[in-house]
Protein: Hydrogenase maturation protein HypD
Organism: Kribbella voronezhensis
Amino acid sequence: MKYLAEFSDPELAKRLVDQIHATVTRPWAMMEVCGGQTHTIVRHGIDQLLPDGVEMIHGPGCPVCVTPLEIIDKALEIASQPGVIFCSFGDMLRVPGSGRDLFRIKSEGGDVRVVYSPLDALNLARENPDKQVVFFGIGFETTAPPNAMTVYQAKKLGIENFSLLVSHVRVPPAIEAIMQSPNCRVQAFLAAGHVCSVMGVEEYPELTEKYKVPIVVTGFEPLDILAGILRTVIQLENGEHTLENAYRRAVRDEGNPAAKAMLADVFESTDRAWRGIGMIPQSGWRLSERYREYDAEYRFQVRDIKTLESTVCRSGEVLQGHIKPHECEAFGTLCTPRNPLGATMVSSEGACAAYYLYRRLQTPAASSATSAENKEVSSVG
Ligand code: SF4
């Protein structure tokens, strides 16, 4: 297949759905790690096409959603300071911190700007030598390489008024934490293809072996997801647990060596807190000692932040797959995309936003009744 539309072909989708139905004999629960995959599943009703008892659990792979409250509050404090230009991707501006967000800082006179690349922020630093320019570097292994490269460039060009507020997280330690949870129901994973396009697949065989869990590297189009689910249920039914790469058009086993080398030069592993989940050992990156002067936390000395998490929001349970978004009492009433209580409703990759956007507003009971009525492959594509 050459064109994107072909990855939504209803006939091919029907064939894959039929193969999944022909394969499955028992209930299974599998997690799609990435929020982009969650949106494809919910948007196309893929979960409603699966055999009864086959459950898709939505994972924590939304970078905006898992950025910890403490880092958001640090961003708010830095962005409030005079002489600072605070740069971020648009999603982060509405993420609630302890009582306010970056939009509020902007409305109160803070110089908060939306950029489309960390290099835009570096250019701003070049053009404004009398200001401190800070870029909010969040995300998984996909967004970390350009942020690393920007810091590398800043050092190489001697641009000293640029710094990075870092909140980068890594997928494999999160999979490990999910498997170690006493409430874990996940029996298999669809791994995020874009993460693997950077990092390759070498971190996964150890996990499949240790937790006896199949991991299938999967893309983001409807047929990618269905093919990933098919390969996963074949393994589960056969009692196998191996790593499979079902996204070979984008993922080489070794990943992207240039991006990995840049990451290794600029970052080092660290423990990281995930919003709603908690601390996961060695699940993140921070700037290495060589680049410490470009670390905004270090430059602005933002410590002793007291955080205040919403008592209503259950996004931690959503991110760990313990509840579906519409099982949160605030879903669609107190919490909507216009008035979000949690990052999972703010982010374009958040599970709560996906359920709201694609009208999954029913209670779980009503939802499964509707799901039975909706088992038409025509919803794919
Ligand atoms: S619906 Fe809103 S309040 Fe509930 S878990 Fe999602 S983001 Fe939090």
